[in-house]
Amino acid sequence: MIELQQLSIDDIEEIEELYRNIFTKAPWNDDWSDQKQLYQYIMDLIGNLNSLALGLYVDDILTGLSLGNIRHWYSGTQYYIDEFCIKTEEQGKGLGTCFLRYVEEHIKSKGINHIFLQTDTDMPAYHFYQKNGFAELKSHVSFLKDLNNKG
C-alpha cells in the first residue's frame, strides 16, 4: 500500500534516519555524522509555522520525503521544496514520480499553485524534475558567499 502522510516534529527520528541513509551515499556523499547538526537542519525544515513536510509510505515504511515550506508570492502561493528524496534502494521504480503526483494533489487541495525547488545540473534529480514537467528558470541564479574565505 502506498500513501502520503503529512509529517510533524513528532516524526523527526524517522525523518532523520531516512535522510541520513539517503544523503550519506553516492552521488551526494554528505557527512551527516554530527547528529546535532542533522537535528537542527531537519528542525529548520519541519519546525516552522509555514513548514510542510510530507512522507511517502510504502507498506507503512517511510520511503520518501518532501520537506519545505509554504511561501506567499505575488503570483500565488508556492510550495518551496528544500529536500525531495526517495529511499536509495527504491529509486528507479517510479516511486519518485508517484510521490511527486501525490504532493501536487495535496498542495493543490490547499490552494497552492506553484512548486519551486533547486537542484544541481550534474545530479540525477535534474533529469527527474525535467521528466516530471518542471521548467528550468534560465534567468534564476543561486549565489553563495563563503564567509570563511579571506579572499
End-to-end Cα distance, whole Å, is: 54 Å
Apparent shape: globular
CATH architecture annotation name: 3-Layer(aba) Sandwich
Q: Name the CATH class.
A: Alpha Beta
Give helix and strand order, one letter per element, not per position: EHHEEEHEH
Strand order across the largest sheet:
1-2-3-4-5
CATH topology: Aminopeptidase
Number of domains: 1
* SS strand fraction: 25-35%
Describe what you observe in this structure.
- By secondary structure, this protein is an alpha+beta fold.
- The chain contains four helices and five strands.
- The protein is 31% helix and 28% strand.
- Strands 1-2-3-4-5 form a five-stranded mixed sheet.
- A hairpin with a 2-residue loop joins β2 (51-58) and β3.
- The protein is globular, with a radius of gyration of 16 Å.
Annotate the secondary structure layout.
Elements: E1 2-7, H1 12-23, H2 35-46, E2 51-58, E3 61-73, E4 76-86, H3 95-109, E5 114-117, H4 124-131
Any descriptors?
Aminopeptidase, five-stranded mixed β-sheet, 31% helix
Question: What's this entry about, in short?
Answer:
With about 150 residues, the protein is an alpha+beta fold.
